[in-house]
Amino acid sequence: MYLLLTSLALSYAVVLAFYRLFFHPLRKYPGPILAALTEGYELYYNIIVGGGLVNEIEKLHKIYGPVVRVGPNTLHFNYPQAYHDIYTYGTTLVKDPGFYHGTAAHVRQSAFAFCDPQHAKIRRGLMSPLFSRRAVLELEYTIQQKIDKLLAVFWEHYNSPNSSVEMSSAYRSLTTDIITSYCFAECPNTLDLPDFSHPIIQYVEETFQDYWLQRHFPILTSIINNGPQKIVLWLLPKFKGYAGLKSGLERQIDKILDNPDILSSAEHETVYRHLLEPKGQERPSRTALLHEAIVFTAAGSDTVGNASYVGTFYALKYDSIRRMLSEELSKAWPEKDTPLSYAALEKLPYLTAFIKETLRFSVGVIHPLPRIVGPTTPEIGGLKLPAGTIVEMSALFMHMNPDVFPDPYTFNPDRWLAGETNEMMHDFVPFSKGSRICVGLNLAWSELYLIFGNLFRKVDLKLATDDDTIDDFSPEQRMDYFVVQWRKGYRVSVGKTPV
Ligand code: HEM
After folding, report:
1. Which of 306, 438, 480 to mutate to test the pocket of ligand 1 (most atoms within 8 A of CB)?
2. Which helix (DSSP H) or strand (DSSP E) does residue 204 occupy?
3. pLDDT tens digits, residue range 331-345?
4. Nearest alpha carbon, ligand 1 atom 43
5. What is the CA(302)–ligand 1 centre distance, in A?
6. Residue 197 alpha carbon to ligand 1 centre in Å
7. DSSP character at residue 285
């Protein structure tokens, strides 16, 4: 019996391999044979190498050209027209369920994980009023309050010449408190821990690191959610972060469901209020509320935290950048103890160029975002592809395209100030494009203006270097866990600006 089953399985594998290599509609596209044969190629770079897929794809494009078969049924592109086609043909291309239902298995009922464009549109419609520019302008005080708190921690705990701040955790604590206050009118007060060691910071980082296990073994998420917690976490300790994040948010949601009046007494509008009072639509379930809350906490903190972290590094590494920021801010903001609004900061040309360069360079969501070609999808980058083909292009390849951004691996805000920037703006896609563009982009912009504005106006930061300090956010340092993570980090010393 075993012999029969084994020979059947082997025959199936041989026939499948033969089909994928010689009869598959993508057979004419170049790429490594192993990638054409099996999804194991992607698994190897995601899990065994550990966040290595984007770097590998970069190498593959150098060998095979602008279109590479990176999986049995997947093409990765490396030219702007293809990116624009994939992400703007709206509902004719959908998010790939094979990818999103695995990677986002822990948040299956969130807008982020919905692959059906209609479902995503309805859910996004419920939440988007909280993320409109108007709402962001009304609630910017929630951002300013947390920045003030970070600065107070700096003055109180890091004002001696021998102390230094680990900036990744500091920024992630700040952005966690911001996003949770903004979305839920309640936050874990991670900034109350002056060494920035609140467990939620680690939980979020670990949750992203679990993405590839979930992507390739989606059953793990069911086991973690439904099995006895202690045993499961003993067997799968990597998922402790996710379990911690989830249980904290569950407590918050249960409190609200038990006593919905809490929402009307909250300091300001919250995402729960929008979700629980849908006009003419079905109210999302407890699980859906939880899944949205996890997405907001993770997506809202990691991405802005990463951008702040990378941008600050270059402002400190290159004195000219730091000087330009300080001078512009001092002129526009003479009374630094009176807050300056986001609307005023937005008008500053150098700060704006610096933030654009930061978003270009830091590529927060670095993984290619896979979409499935539908029967009515027009050509992608000039190619007519069969329905069912998975197409993708990482934003990294847009932002590091030397034809549009000369010398792309140099951090250079001046590129945004020298003459015509239309072409760069067209290919500047930190938040993706089209119907699945980032929900939180208005909030992200305002956070970055307020964070950089306040820090470079009020704090005299200096890089505190040692052997472990990163010297460049270069390809060798980056890891692709859907979001970008870095192998090395940096610390800073803190002082007050003179006036
Ligand atoms: C610099 C900061 C940010 C960057 C670079 C960024 C980038 C992105 C990108 C590229 C996507 C598309 C993902 C995909 O198609 O799979 C996305 C989606 C999303 N982002 Fe952001 N994001 C940022 C900040 C935020 C913030 C502050 C929030 C706050 C709530 C947020 C919430 C979301 C949500 C809910 C989605 C899913 C949208 C959907 O699938 O329809 N993001 N983001």
Report:
1. 438
2. helix 199-209
3. 999 999 999 999 999
4. 438
5. 10
6. 25
7. P
Residue position matching structure tokens 């909280």: 130
How far apart CA 379 and CA 392 sit, in angstroms, is 14
Inter-residue contact 388 to 92 (CB < 8 Å): no
More confident position, 210 or 404: 404
Report the C-alpha gap between 297 and 357 in whole angstroms: 25
Query: How far, in Å, from the CA of 14 to the mean position of ligand 1?
Result: 41
The whole-model pTM stands at: 0.95
How does strand 390-392 pair with strand 371-373?
A: antiparallel
Q: What share of the chain is helix, strand, coil (3-state, %, to 5)?
A: 60, 10, 30
Note the pLDDT of residue 499: 65
Ligand 1 site residues, Cβ closer than 6 angstroms: 111-112, 120, 124, 179, 295-296, 299-300, 303-304, 307, 364-365, 369, 430-432, 436, 438-440, 443-444
Q: How far is CA 282 from the centre of its chain?
A: 29
- In terms of residues, how long is the chain? 499
Tokens standing for residue 466: 């040692």
Strand ranges, E, within 305-424: 371-373, 390-392
Residues 210-247: tens digit of each pLDDT: 899 999 998 888 887 788 878 878 887 877 777 888 88
Q: Which residues pair with 462 in a beta bridge?
A: 493
Distance, CA of 290 to CA of 124 (rounded, Å): 15
The answer on pLDDT for 89 being more than 80 is no
pLDDT at 460 over 80: yes
Contacts 24+ apart (CB under 8 A), 328-331: 329/453, 329/456, 329/457, 330/457, 330/499
